[in-house]
TrEMBL record:
Keyword Ligase appears in the UniProt entry: yes
Catalytic activity, reaction form: 5-phospho-beta-D-ribosylamine + glycine + ATP = N(1)-(5-phospho-beta-D-ribosyl)glycinamide + ADP + phosphate + H(+)
Cofactor(s) needed by this chain: Mg(2+); Mn(2+)
Glycoprotein keyword on record: no
Residues making up the signal peptide according to the UniProt record: none
UniProt domain ATP-grasp: residue ranges: 107-312
Pfam families tied to this protein: GARS_A, GARS_C, GARS_N
Metabolic or biological pathway: Purine metabolism; IMP biosynthesis via de novo pathway; N(1)-(5-phospho-D-ribosyl)glycinamide from 5-phospho-alpha-D-ribose 1-diphosphate: step 2/2
Name this protein carries in UniProt: Phosphoribosylamine--glycine ligase
Gene Ontology MF annotations: phosphoribosylamine-glycine ligase activity
InterPro entries: ATP-grasp, ATP_grasp_subdomain_1, PreATP-grasp_dom_sf, PRibGlycinamid_synth_ATP-grasp, PRibGlycinamide_synth, PRibGlycinamide_synth_C-dom, PRibGlycinamide_synth_C_sf, PRibGlycinamide_synth_CS
EC number: 6.3.4.13
Amino acid sequence: MRVLVIGSGAREHALLLALRRDPQIEALAVAPGNAGTASLAEQYDVDVSSGDAVVALARKVAADLVIIGPEVPLVLGVADAVRAAGIACFGPSKDAARIEGSKAFAKDVMTAAGVRTATSEIVDNPAHLDAALDRFGPAAGDQAWVVKDDGLAAGKGVVVTPDRDAARAHAAALLDGGHPVLLESFLDGPEVSLFCVVDGETVVPLLPAQDFKRVGDGDTGPNTGGMGAYAPLPWLPDEITAQIVSEIVEPVAAELVRRGSSFSGLLYAGLAITSKGPSVVEFNCRFGDPETQSVLALLDSPLGQLLNAAATGELAAFEELRWRNGSAVTVVVAAENYPGRPRVDDVITGSEADGILHAGTTRREDGAIVSAGGRVLAVVGTGADLAAARADVYSKVASIRLPGSHFRTDIGLAAVEGRIHL
Ligand code: GLY
C-alpha cells in the first residue's frame, strides 16, 4: 500500500513512524512535512488546503490511501476531492467535519443524540454580550467562564477564567474580529481525550489519553494547542471508556449517519469526567496533537491497514486492536513566547534522536535544523509504567538545545502521584 500523509506537525511525524511499522506499507509520502519527516517519507511542498493540489499529488505518488492530519483541509472539503478522484481517504467529508468546524453544529448533533455536554449559547451581537455573560460564570454557579471562538482556532481561541473582565475582553475581541462567540458552562472533573476510528456507525476506540492545554506547570497561563500528553490513563476505569463509546461516540456517529453526514475518519471526543459522568467538552474531526504521539507509540496493530479499513468501509471486520504494555508520555518543546508570536529561525541541536518528533522545524540550506513555529518538537518517552515513561521523556528533553524554548515539567505527574480522583 502506498500512502500519502497530509500535514506538517508532530502528529504527522507520529503517523509516519507508526505507518512504517506496518508490513503492508510499500511507500510513504508527506505534504508538506517538516525537517523530521523528511527521512521517513518523500516530501512535497503543496498547498494542502487545495483539493485539486492534493489530488494531483496523490496521483503523482500513486497513493492507494491519503490520510489527512489537520482540521483545516478537512473542513475545506479536501477529503471529498480525494474520494471523488477515486482514491481512498482517511478523513471525514466537509459535511461531517462540521463536528469540529462549527461548534453550533456539534451542539445540535449532541442534543439530538442525547449526549451530555456543557450548556452553551452563541453570541454574535456585541450588544447582547453582557446579558449573556451574566447567564454563565460564577454568578450562575459555575467555577469560571468558558469563552470560545465558534470556529477553528487551534485550541488558542478558548479562554477559561473566573475573571469577568478577562472573559468579556476575549469575547469582545472575537466579536470585533467578526467571529461569533460561544459561551459555555464550565465542566469540572479530569479531562480525557478518546480517539475513535469511525466509519458510519462502526466505532473503534484507541487508548484514552490526557492532554495539557495550558502553557505552564500546574495548569497556569494561557491555552495552547497542547503542551504534552500521556496514555493510557491509570485512573480511568475501563468501564468509563466503554461508557464513553456506547453513550457518547456511538450515538453521535449514528446521528451523523441519520443526517446524511456520515463520518469516516478519526472522531476525537474531548471530555470531562464530571460527578454526573462523562460530558463532552468538544469533538474534533481528526487525530489530536500531542495525544496522538503518545497513543500511537503504544499501538501494536498495523496502522495503515486500520486506517485503510475505515477508508474503504471494512472497519467492522478489522481485528481487535493490540497494544504494547506500558505507558507513553509526550512533552512539547515550544519556542520562546509561544502561544504568542513565537521566536523562529533558531538552530536546534539534539533533535535527531529516537522519540523526538518534529513539528515547527525546517532544514536550512547549510543543513542546520531551525525552529519554524510555536510548538517545535514533541518528545515521546515510554516505559513500563507512567513514572518510567516520564523519566524517559524528560531525559530526552534534557538533551535538546533550543534558545529561549520552554516546556512543562509536570506532564503526567498528578497521575503518578495519585492526585486525580473521579
Ligand atoms: N490536543 C488538542 C487538539 O488536538 O486539539
